[in-house]
Each structure stands twice: as C-alpha cells, then as structure tokens.
Design brief:
Largest sheet: none
Oligomer: single chain
Number of domains: 1
Distance between the termini: 21 Å
Strand content: under 5%
Number of strands: 0
Shape: elongated
Structural class: mainly alpha
Helix content: over 70%
Radius of gyration: 17 Å
Amino acid sequence: MKIDYLNRSGSNIGSKALMFIVAILNAGRNSFSFFLLLIVCMGYGVVKPSLGKTMIYVRWLAAGHFVFGLIYSVASLTITPETAGRFNFEYMMIAH
C-alpha cells in the first residue's frame, strides 16, 4: 500500500503519514494477537475464570510488544541497509 502511494506521489508528508498509520495498525494487530495468545496459554477462560494479578503483567508485556513492534515497523520502512549502523542491523535481526 505504501509502496504504491510512494511510486505515484513520491516521498512527501502523505507517504510518511501513511507509513505511520500502517506501522501503528501492524504493531497493534501483532500485539493484540500476542496478548490473546498469552492469556489463552495462561489458562484464562478454560482453566481459570480470572488471571488476577497475572493479567497486569500480561498487559504490560503486550504494551511493550506494541512499542517495540512500532519501532521495528517504522525502522524497517525508513532505514535502508546501506545507511544502517551496527546497532540498527542487530536490532532488526533480533526483532525479526
């Protein structure tokens, strides 16, 4: 979607806004899937009717997953391999 817009319009404010919207939606989708997987693996709804204090930790993990997923999405779309430093390369390899 971003590539089609970028090919038609060039690199402008619209393409960067579209990139951030797509990155936020992508990170949100992945984090929500991670959150659902965590609560099901903890036994919520099947074994336990409530996770209690564990649910707070699961929410924090999902929030952290969203933040780092957003950083990964934006970095993978903006930083080219030629301009990436060692830290950027290592983060992209670990996160992917």
